[in-house]
Amino acid sequence: MKKIYMIIFLTLTTLTHAENDFNFIEDNQTTTTEEVAPFFKDLNVHFYLGAAFSSLSLDGSNNESFKAKGMTLQLGYRYNDYLSIEGRYTKHLGDLEYRHGTNGGANINDLSHADFSTKAIYIKPQYRVNKVKIYGMLGYGQVTLANLMDDGVDRAESGLQFGLGVSYGYRPYVDFYVDFEHIYGGKGFGSAGTEVDYSANTFNIGVAYKFVLKEMK
Q: Is 18 exposed, middle or buried (0-12, 13-18, 19+ CB in 10 A)?
């Protein structure tokens, strides 16, 4: 009988130690595999940079016009799948084409130092279908036409700007895009007292590169 009690005692003791060892290993594994969630994890935040070849135009109802080719630089932040915030700066490069028009057009012969540029910040609602994204742009910006030597007047107007575009995801982090911006519409364009209606627009073909911050401690 004593031998039976001894066997039972040894068996229970062995099982107890085995259970304690198992629990220790399990707790230790849980502790060592637990990860502290870093800041911004799972937010999939996108910052992006882009550049585009641009066509700029400013046209008056009196047939006066300024046209140029240029470049656009952009910096954006994708808030989520449906909304981004973006800043843009566009400047003309090379020759600026000018047509005098009638009724109030400026007499400009020297365009060698002219500066035709625009800057704006936009809110961009967007919708993606597979690799294609359609987006709108709504924001505030300024259009500048300066250093017109014969005219002697630097023209600048600020106001509401808007646009529409489409992009194609060529790579996970690379988008090609085409868009149109209406950057000014109103009377005068920097010339007080004139009733001439002016409209300024840009057309852009470009590429954007997205920086993905999946984890940031």
A: exposed
Residues 188-213: tens digit of each pLDDT? 787 655 788 999 999 999 999 988 76
Amino acid at 142: Q
Would residue 152 count as lying in a domain? yes
CB 88 within 8 A of CB 120: yes
Q: Residue 79 corresponds to which tokens in the numbers above? A: 């808030």
Task: Spell out the residues 6+ positions from residue 175 whose beta carbon is closer than 8 angstroms to its own.
Answer: 48, 50, 133, 167, 168, 169, 207, 208, 210
Q: What is the pTM of this model?
A: 0.73
Taking the C-alpha atoms of residue 44 and residue 185, their distance in angstroms, rounded to an integer, is 38
Assign residue 164 the CATH number of its domain: 2.40.160.20
Range of the domain at 183: 45-213
Per-residue confidence band for 81, with pLDDT thresholds at 50, 70 and 90: confident
Read off the tokens for 16.
């107890």
Q: How many CA atoms lie less than 13 Å away from 190 in the CB half-sphere? A: 21
Run of H or E including 81: none
If phi over 0 gives left and psi between -120 and 50 gives alpha, with beta otherwise, what is residue 188?
left
Residue 84 placed within a domain: yes
Tokens of 18: 């085995």
